[in-house]
Here is the input.
Amino acid sequence: MKKHNFSAGPSILPKSVIEQSSKSIEELDSIGLSLIEISHRSKEFISIMNEAQSLVLKLLKLDSKIYKVLFLQGGASMQFLMSAINLLDKRAGFINTGSWSQKAINEARLFGEVIEIASSKDKNYNYIPKNFKITKKIDYLHLTTNNTIFGTQFKTFPKFDFPLIADMSSDIFSRNIDYSKFDLFYAGAQKNMGPAGTTLVVIKDDILGKVNRKIPSMLDYKIHIDKESMFNTPPVFAVYTSLLTLRWIESNGGIVGIEKQNNKKAEMIYNEIDRNNAFEGFTKEEDRSIMNATFNLKDGLNEEKFNKLCEENGISGLKGHRSVGGYRASIYNALPFESIEVLIDVMKKFEKISL
Ligand SMILES: *Cc1c(COP(=O)(O)O)cnc(C)c1O
Here is the structure.
């Protein structure tokens, strides 16, 4: 039985993407060679890279004269330090919405002063701070659009006078926001785009060149931009599989079409969390993520019983992150409605046998 995959990352990809990327390992598009055996300088791979880069911009409605697209390695975690080494001259501002923001803060501190503009630490990060003020001049503001662990998500983005940088690892391509508000954003592929192994970076190159330090080549955005994301061997399989997902998004009505489905799926699951007397939601309602729904069992209910029901019904990856506990349903783009329905059914069954 194919399981219902609620894993937070690496996570579910469209079935057609898995099938076609598997085939490419044997043979890419009838060229008589495997994708992973050909040169990254071959015309076949260059065309894959070019299409992936332009499709990213097309889906996000960004101008290729202003934004550059890179497929790098090292994960989003590498971008925590790479963004700082390239852009942090004196002082950077951060909004701290939990572990991922905190990790980005820790790395940035190696390169300059960091001020925490706002934080939701006081309530174990169960909300998104709002109405914060920036009183000092900063080189940029960094935020995490969707906190994968706590299940919180920024719904709006004010226009700042400073460059805006965002970690979008777990909600890129899931909703129709104005991506042009951001000067740099990045996302590890393995949440909503492809397999682990590549990180998407979208950057306005006019924010570069403002720090004096020497930057090692592999960490220098300018070098990667000048070499069109081929400074060294790119992670060819991860880039190709990401391209297949981007094509899948386009054929599903683009970001607008995908967002409609995501909103519907999130509504279904949150309605059940709120209705069901055996569970309670973790995050403040207005800040709930449409990608990661976090919830807990009400006190005194039998966790093992619920886990067993999940297992019997093929529900996988529902366990919450160790820092939050409880449960987390990650409902990324590729998760079918059917899986949501099965989970809701199981929650209802559990309520019936427990209360
Ligand atoms: C998963 C995740 C990361 C870490 O990504 P890696 O690619 O493992 O470095 C960073 N930020 C967010 C928001 C994430 O969800």
